[in-house]
């Protein structure tokens, strides 16, 4: 699925925090206008689920997923609202089982070789590498690429406009995620042009 989506979307995934529900749709439109279509709406605030539903209905060009999935219940709730993919900062046995049953694109979060092996054993070849910068960044991903050449990573955590290129240059990285694409100041000022400008430049 990621392969297919990446044919028509930039390989970047904004990690979106919705403080005010009315920002969800214009923010998504601003990103899509700049070619950023893979949108990870986090469950960090109470508006996450509703925002997923609203964006799905109002912005058909967006590919909307759910982030900060920390339980199987989170995943089930987000799927009911129409989330097309799901991302977790880590994984539990329960989440992996629920994601397998769903069968859709789920990115479990990993940080160590052992975790890469655990989720690969469970059938997940596409993984989130989190927190990327704090855990060794590009060098760590290069090292993981040795024994795990078949695994594709989406690093997130501490990545910004100055560094995301370095990650995307790695052959085991399929996309890069982060909150830099939807800065808090631009969101609260409802400065959609600023968000489109960032998206275009990315
Ligand atoms: O909440 C989640 O779903 C997470 O798993 C963590 C986020 O992906 C990173 O915290 C984003 O990191 P920054 O770009 O440094 O803000």
Automatic annotation (TrEMBL):
Pfam families for the chain: Aldolase
Catalytic activity: 2-dehydro-3-deoxy-6-phospho-D-gluconate = D-glyceraldehyde 3-phosphate + pyruvate
Domain of life: Bacteria
Entry EC no(s): 4.1.2.14
Keywords: Carbohydrate metabolism, Lyase
Biological pathway: Carbohydrate acid metabolism; 2-dehydro-3-deoxy-D-gluconate degradation; D-glyceraldehyde 3-phosphate and pyruvate from 2-dehydro-3-deoxy-D-gluconate: step 2/2
GO molecular function, a single term: 2-dehydro-3-deoxy-phosphogluconate aldolase activity
This protein's record includes keyword Hydrolase: no
PROSITE patterns tied to this protein: ALDOLASE_KDPG_KHG_1 (PS00159)
Key word Lyase present: yes
Enzyme class, broadest EC rank: lyase
Family the entry assigns: Belongs to the KHG/KDPG aldolase family.
Subunit architecture: Homotrimer.
PANTHER family (alphabetical): 2-DEHYDRO-3-DEOXY-6-PHOSPHOGALACTONATE ALDOLASE-RELATED, 2-KETO-3-DEOXY-6-PHOSPHOGLUCONATE ALDOLASE
Protein name from the UniProt record: 2-dehydro-3-deoxy-phosphogluconate aldolase
Species in which this protein is naturally found: Thalassolituus oleivorans MIL-1
